[in-house]
Amino acid sequence: MSAITVYGTEWCSDCMRSKRYFTTHNVGFDFIDVEADPGAEEEVRRLQGGERRIPTVVFADGTHLIEPTHQEIGEKLGIIPWAHREEYDLVVIGGGPTGLTAAIYAGRQGLSTLVVDSASFGGQAATTKRIDNYPGFPDGIGGGSLAETFLTHAEGENTELLSATTVLELLEAGDERVELALSNGQQIRARSVIVATGTTYRTLGAPGEEPLLGSRIHFCSTCDGPAYKGRSTLVVVGGGNSACEEALYLATLVDEVVMLQNLPELTADIVLRERVLADPKITVVTDTAITGFAEVDSSAPGTASVGAATVEAASVSVDFVHGPERLAARVSADAVFEFIGLRANSANFTSSLEVDGQGYILTGADHGTSMDRVYAAGDVRAGSTKQLVAAAGDAVSCFLAIRDRVLAEKERSLELA
Known about the structure:
This protein is of the alpha/beta class and 417 residues long. The chain has helices at residues 13-24, 38-47, 70-77, 97-108, 143-154, 221-224, 241-250, 270-278, 388-416, and strands at 5-8, 30-33, 56-58, 64-66, 87-93, 113-116, 159-162, 167-172, 178-182, 187-195, 199-201, 217-218, 233-237, 256-260, 282-285, 288-295, 302-303, 310-311, 316-322, 327-333, 335-338, 342-344, 374-376. Helix 4 (97-108) runs parallel beside helix 5 (143-154) and helix 7 packs parallel to helix 8. Mean pLDDT is 89; it is low at 299-313.
């Protein structure tokens, strides 16, 4: 047996990423599928006081991490990620489909390329249960599998991948270079930079929400939904395409799904709306405003004022008001899944790059930003469509816009040398 054990499932994208991290750093580990080994699931629930969040990583000293980031694993093992060079032709910030596509194109042109990601590679695509509209996969493909395909394609002799590292600041170096300050203490330089940091899920900011994030409040039904299989009730917050898609999936796992939408009606595409409203397991409550969350005694039954009369072993209560009269109500459930939109991952760049009112990076027709040699592509860019295929195409357009400039500069450097 290895000193490290990873408890997870074969379909879990976060489990795939944890396993890849250990493999990349030549750290031995054992993987145990909790769905195939009842004893393993029992051990995970013991470690988590009854919950079953994965991956759960157990170390030689008996300590464990639940759904760890690459940074948390690295800190535990004393592994500090480090860029191998001081200067690159291209640095791509963000390791989702956009960033990895740009790296694929740059690597094929022979450019020294570094892809930096603050967490792990794959982006939101890696947490999507199934992608049915990506060309070349008529039968659909799991998001984790597609992300692994992108990552494998991006790896090459000209491309270096650096996870669990954040770019803290972008600075104009003054000699046709951009300087990047990394969270590991490094200062590196690049001829060009592509910001492809994407977006993250928005939260409500309601009282009691923050302590429950990651334990009873989730943002990925594929990752966390199966842990509640066979339970009574789940709450979905939101009414757009994502919320409806996730509610339909979660309804296959539990007895009831209660959807809380802040607008007077669902805003998803008509086909999704009709499927949700026709599903006998889904109760839709519109014109709501959530006023708070609270963890409840998991050993005591809760009472749901919406939908099912009684929820046994409920773990979280959601208080809200609804309707023109703003009537107060409460629903008790096993967990809450929030799908209320996205925010741009641009906080570290707003002092150096121009952004719009929502934090999305403003670009010109060539994807150039307000800083010379810095470009933006994918979901973080203002005006992007927030679609996977479009994000990959955006990366290609962005790279082609900078390719000739970088190649010409490299050629001049060689001549001067």
